[in-house]
Write a structure and sequence with these properties.
Blueprint lengths: L1 H30 L5 H20 L3 H14 L12 H16 L1 H5 L3 H5 L1 H34 L9 H30 L2 H7 L1
């Protein structure tokens, strides 16, 4: 029982951290109409999932982390008018999709990869980019289906230029921020003693 609690604690903590960031930081960024808001929020979610995975070593941890974050975000349904339901549905689905789609890229990240990150940085960056890009394709598809079924505003109706920014430019920015976190994680937590252990 205590072992299960120990394993699940990082997942709960990271899920709540992600959900709180979406609620608080996301609210202020959208209110301020800050550019590239999604590029700043997405790395937070990915970092929380990576942290939960590294603490537990379980692939399910990434999905469970997103479920907890989405559940916290779902609380906003209490204050959003029914006519604007998509303001709740969109971010909740986005969070859940992140948890499912990014499982594989995240599980490629472990301390053995960190040990060789200076040699595999481009590969790590590419895997994160591909994961984010595929997630965004899935999310855009959901948006188009949502609009077709309910008439709710959808990102799929944006211009080609806007979609290019969403799919390419913002993906690169998000992946870069995640890589910065990973590099800092290595510098701070992977001590020379741990590195010798992996050799």
């Amino acid at each position: 029982m205590w072992k299960a609690i120990k394993i699940n604690t990082p997942v709960i903590y990271m899920g709540l951290t992600w959900g709180a960031a979406e609620l608080v930081l996301g609210y202020f960024l959208h209110m301020l109409k800050a550019p590239l808001t999604g590029s700043l929020l997405m790395p937070i979610g990915i970092i929380c999932m990576i942290s939960a995975y590294l603490k537990t070593g379980s692939r399910r941890a990434t999905v469970f982390t997103s479920v907890i974050a989405a559940s916290l975000k779902l609380v906003t349904i209490l204050i959003v008018p029914v006519s604007s339901f998509y303001l709740v549905v969109n971010p909740v689905v986005a969070i859940l999709l992140e948890g499912v789609v990014l499982v594989m890229p995240i599980t490629l990240i472990n301390k053995r990869v960190f040990r060789k990150m200076t040699h595999n940085m481009l590969l790590s960056f590419a895997s994160i980019c591909i994961g984010i890009f595929f997630y965004k394709i899935c999310f855009l598809s959901f948006q188009i289906l949502l609009k077709a079924g309910t008439g709710a505003p959808a990102l799929g109706t944006l211009s080609v230029q806007d979609n290019f920014s969403f799919l390419i430019s913002q993906t690169l920015i998000s992946a870069f921020l995640v890589m910065v976190y990973l590099i800092l994680y290595v510098k701070i937590t992977v001590s020379p003693v741990m590195k010798k252990t992996f050799n």
